[in-house]
Amino acid sequence: LPQGRLRLRAWLEKQIHSGDYPGVRWLDRIFQIPWKHAARHGWSIDRDATLFRSWAIHTGKDKPDPKTWKANFRCALNSLSDICELREHSKKKGTNAYRVYRMLPNKTAKRKRGTIYIINNHV
Length: 123
Description:
Oligomer: single chain
Mean pLDDT: 88
Strand content: 15-25%
Helix content: 25-40%
Strand order of the largest sheet: 1-2-4-3
CATH superfamily: Winged helix-like DNA-binding domain superfamily/Winged helix DNA-binding domain
């Protein structure tokens, strides 16, 4: 990582705390991210892609392509062993689609050959 660049978890915590992104908010150690499909009526790059664009700018991969911003953000998020999606709480379709994630306490998950083992899940 270039010096001064935050890793996704630290960067994401900062963004959630900032209140700068509509619909991005904490629910205890659980957080929600709007995840509206760009083909949906009413989708707006300035409202629905701001978090993804900010991550793209932060990583230096910010060519003007919201689909790529979202895919890169999703892949980075899914690669973290200490953040997991709560699929049963996510709403994948509709005009107010969102995904819900939980941040596990730091250093409580280990990745071994593609499988995540939770060591301590007191959240």
